[in-house]
Amino acid sequence: MRMVLQLQAFGDRPRLPGERAQQTFIRHKVLAMGWLIFKYATTAFLVVVISEVAKRSDRLGSFIAALPTITVLTLLWLYFEKQPDEKITNHAYYTFWYVIPTLPMFFLFPWLFGKFGFWGALGVSVLVTVGCFVVVALLARMFGVDLLG
Prior knowledge:
Helix content is 77%, strand content 0%. The model has no long low-confidence stretch (mean pLDDT 85). By secondary structure, it is an all-alpha fold. The protein is extended and about 70 Å long.
């Protein structure tokens, strides 16, 4: 029987079987959690910036909010996370169809606000948006676009 002597760096200790794999697993989990925290922080930061700008300027805040910043961020996250091209393009495609039924809410809310106050206007606006979504989904289905499946 022949024994093999392994040289170790100063201060190294013998590794247990599977220990390196476990350390790699933990390192990947920590990196994944860091990435998730970064995504949450970046998205939250944008929402706070938009609301702070809206406090100072109605028009500029509305303009920034109307930009597809969250969609662009989502596309970036999907791309950086190496999602398939089809998933990335589908996200953009379906976002288009989901934006359409939200548009009446922005027209109705200011008028409803004067009649029902903030919470009433918000509630009715949400209900109108849900109704518009159902109508758009049914119309889109006639053109071969399935928004509900």
